Amino acid sequence: MADEPKSDVLELRKFVAPEFVHGAGARHLLSQYVHNFSAKHVLLVSDPGVFAAGWVDPLFAALQQDGVQVTLFTDVTPNPKDYEIIAGHEVYLENECDAIVAVGGGSPMDCAKGIGILATNGGDILEYEGVDNIARPLPPMIFIPTTAGTAADVSQFAILTDVTRATKIAIISKALIPDVSLTDPETTVTMGPELTAHVGMDVLTHAVEALGSNASSPITDMHALEAARLVFTHLRTAIAEPENMIAREGMMRASLQAGLAFSNASLGLVHAMAHSLGGNKDLPHGECNAILLPLVMRFNVEAAREKYLRLADWIPGLSPSSTENATLNRVIEAVEILQRDVGANIPLSQIGVQKGDLRELAALACADPCVVTNPRSPSEADVETLFEQAL
Ligand SMILES: [Fe+2]
User: Fold this and answer.
1) Which of 160, 149, 172, 187 is nearest to 55 (CA)?
2) The pLDDT of residue 319
3) Which chain residues have CB less than 5 Å from ligand 1, an ion?
């Protein structure tokens, strides 16, 4: 087994995480947690897809039955927009809410974080872009993720779309970690195969980028490596057999552990490029990552050499080769094979990206905070070349 890099072992590292309850049925603890915060009126943030899948109504009813007033807000689209956060905040104020519950994938959860920022800090949501710009704690936040992907329910990140600039912004602060996350794999059985594939590849990207990050630590590595193992073990089955609870639980745990890793180690160039694509072209986050991950791994391979060699030990069925270079190649090939098996090996040109877009996309990616922790520092020309290879 490859050794831990000495530099990682000797540096100071902080690790933050929310309280979470993981397991089938965890969502049924919602009322109990709302009462723990003495909340009287909850803003329940979700989106039309999750609402239609039937996950919101029973939770809404259970809260009401337990004496909690609930106002529903579902005007949230993928890649949540700044004006949706403003609208949600108005609903929060009008109804004198005192806590926020998010039920859904990354979009409702990030929107809920934005509403929470405005609820206690006021001002313009775009002013909070960057690291540690939130002065006051958010209201009580309880999250129930329904995709095994984004991990917004455990992370310090909120990714929102600045509509005027047509780009995503990242707000990063310990204040954005929800108070409680109820990670219930049962909520993921209604995801279709394509969404399952995309969010699953997002999880693998979180794991690989946290592992290779300049800000990683032995604690984040432990979560990242186990998350990668879980994705390789369970993603194909979760797609083929949507109601297989062993696979769904494995993917939900992968999402949780990859989230704990990247929330504390940050991410890298795949996410910087995916944020640029997602914000500029309104494309699904997981799909962008799924397309870009192996390409960026090849770009990073020398700089992340020790970490990728450790990853080899955690990919089920991967037999190490006689040389390190051959083993590294097998690691990246394993990611490419998974990408192909889940149907994510499609060119960017097929999802609306054109050659003329690439320069601007590369410039936006290089301005993203995730690029800072990438193991290899890329130039704009490097990033443009990577986009071109994915075209
Ligand atoms: Fe992600």
Assistant:
1) 187
2) 85
3) 202
How far apart CA 133 and CA 20 sit, in angstroms, is: 25
Q: Which pLDDT tens digit goes with each residue over 135-166? A: 999 999 999 999 988 899 999 999 999 999 88
Distances (CA, A) of 237 to 250, 251, 302: 10, 10, 32
129 C-alpha to ligand 1 centroid (Å): 17
pLDDT number for residue 358 = 97
Distance between Cα 283 and ligand 1 center (Å) = 13
* pTM for this predicted structure: 0.94
Residues in the chain with pLDDT values less than 50: none
Ligand 1 centroid from CA 157, angstroms: 10
Radius of gyration of the chain (CA): 20
User: What separation in angstroms does the CA of 81 have from each of 163, 256, 279?
Assistant: 6, 25, 9
Query: 95 CA distance to ligand 1 centroid (A)?
Result: 32
pLDDT of residue 167: 86
Look up the CATH number of domain 26-183: 3.40.50.1970
The C-alpha angle 317, 320, 324, rounded to 5 degrees, equals: 145
Which contacts qualify for 364-368: CB closer than 8 Å, 24 or more apart? 364/167, 364/275, 364/276, 364/279, 364/280, 365/269, 365/272, 365/273, 365/275, 365/276, 366/272, 368/168, 368/170, 368/271, 368/272, 368/275, 368/276
Domain spanning 6-13+192-390: which superfamily?
Answer: Dehydroquinate synthase-like - alpha domain (1.20.1090.10)
Phi, psi of 222 (to 5 degrees): -60, -45
Residues 206, 289: Cα–Cα separation, whole Å: 9
Q: What gap in Å lies between CA 237 and CA 240, rounded to an integer?
A: 5
Domain span(s) for CATH 1.20.1090.10 in the chain: 6-13+192-390
- Among 314, 319, 120, 344, residue whose Cα is nearest residue 236: 344
